[in-house]
Amino acid sequence: MNICTIGDSITWGPRLPFRVAWANLLRNHLEKNFDNLYSLYDLGVDGDTTKNLLQRFDVEMSARKPGLIIFNIGINDSLFRGTEDYPETPLQDFEVNMELLIEKARKFTDKIVVLGLVKGSDLLTTPLIQSTTGKSYTKERTKIYDAKLEEVARKNGLMFVDINELLTDADFDDGLHPNINGHIKIFEKVSSELDKILLIKHERYATLVDQTDNEIGYKKLDAFDENDIVRVSALWITNNKGEVLLAKRPTNKRRDPNRWGPSVAAVLEKGQTYLEAIKQATKNEIGIEGFVTIEGKKLLVTGYNNFYCQLFSSQLDLEIKTLELNKEEVAELK
């Protein structure tokens, strides 16, 4: 499959000591891990707006016949010169241009992704220090155009990758162009979202530890056995009446099938902390996030299954019927 990333300098990646823009990193990732399945073409042009993209889009796509198109455009549409009364692309024109680009893209593929906008400090961008024509960019205007991008993408049923809060001011070289750290963050977000479209499943590894909870290695999640000690996080949720929410594991689970237990439990994967694991599992299994946890004891459990279990608790007044159960992980709640 040919993949085309098309946009402006954020796609192209200027002001970097090596070719480490997010599109470069994505290409390296796909070539390294998936042999010849995917060919990525970076079609970013410094300074491009949606108007420029409309002019070159058909030629670029006809030459490459993409199976997936990623739009990374809009930051230059948001710029102004002098005052905000003179935008490069008025917001209503920006919306029309994006609709036209999506219409053109659908002639080549139904796999279309829209990457959101993000900007750093305004200190060096009002005006942009290297601009000879007085170009100015602000966070406020970037957010307005980013919101319009998301609106258009959602309306057309497309995947929108939100990165507006992903980067900090420290992740930019000049307030406008991400530095290496910024591009790595964008790549990681885009890559994880593309997995859903490309149906890529990554191998997942459990963290193995010794009798004192020191990491000693990793095994695939479906490969560790009774001789291994893994790390587990367990969350017990209570309401203001002191009632405990219990979860029942599905019958097809390899470990403890059809068994009632804590509200949420998770085997720690490679690189995860106990807290990260339980937060992610709670979101994935019952659709709850942003809650406060209290860390309890950490116990070594031995027997048929061996694991270090970090206990967490949280008081939440919930109605079971309002929870979003992931039936692959939770059969029933009570």
TrEMBL record:
This is Nudix hydrolase domain-containing protein. Residues 228-334 form the Nudix hydrolase domain. GO terms for molecular function: phosphatidylcholine lysophospholipase activity. Gene3D superfamilies: Nucleoside Triphosphate Pyrophosphohydrolase (3.90.79.10), SGNH hydrolase (3.40.50.1110). Pfam families: Lipase_GDSL_2, NUDIX. It comes from Candidatus Collierbacteria bacterium CG17_big_fil_post_rev_8_21_14_2_50_45_7.
